[in-house]
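Duplicate of #3305? Posting structure anyway:
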């Protein structure tokens, strides 16, 4: 009889109704003649680390989306174009540069911010402070 160590993932609901994500790792137990008589192994509760990983991914996605929206806004303001057209431009440059849209947007915003002059900032200040 062939056998190998195994591992699997499971969701377990405890007596308090809380769901836990666990990883099970184990191996067969054999008697002296090689006949399987059971299994031996352990459970590892990965709920907290899994939730942390999920939260980190969601946060990164939200940050990337925010940077893309900001880049679209800069393009919309500079060229007087729609959000859809601004996104089309980001996609086009993404393909031209072989960068993901989120990375392109971030680099674009950094480049624009580093080139902003005192005059540009003054114009933004005036526009913001004279709104009624």
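Output from current build:
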């Amino acid at each position: 009889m062939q056998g190998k160590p195994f591992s699997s993932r499971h969701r377990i609901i405890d007596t308090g109704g809380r769901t836990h994500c666990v990883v099970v790792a184990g191996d067969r137990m054999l008697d002296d003649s090689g006949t399987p008589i059971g299994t031996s192994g352990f459970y590892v509760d990965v709920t907290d680390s899994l939730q942390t990983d999920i939260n980190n991914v969601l946060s990164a996605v939200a940050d990337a989306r925010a940077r893309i929206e900001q880049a679209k806004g800069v393009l919309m303001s500079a060229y007087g174009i729609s959000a859809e057209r601004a996104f089309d431009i980001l996609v086009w440059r993404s393909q031209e540069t072989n960068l993901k849209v989120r990375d392109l947007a971030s680099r674009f915003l950094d480049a624009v911010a580093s080139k902003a002059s005192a005059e540009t900032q003054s114009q933004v200040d005036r526009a913001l402070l004279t709104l009624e």
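Confirmed duplicate; merging threads. Strands lie at 6-13, 19-30, 36-45. The first helix runs from residue 47 to 79.
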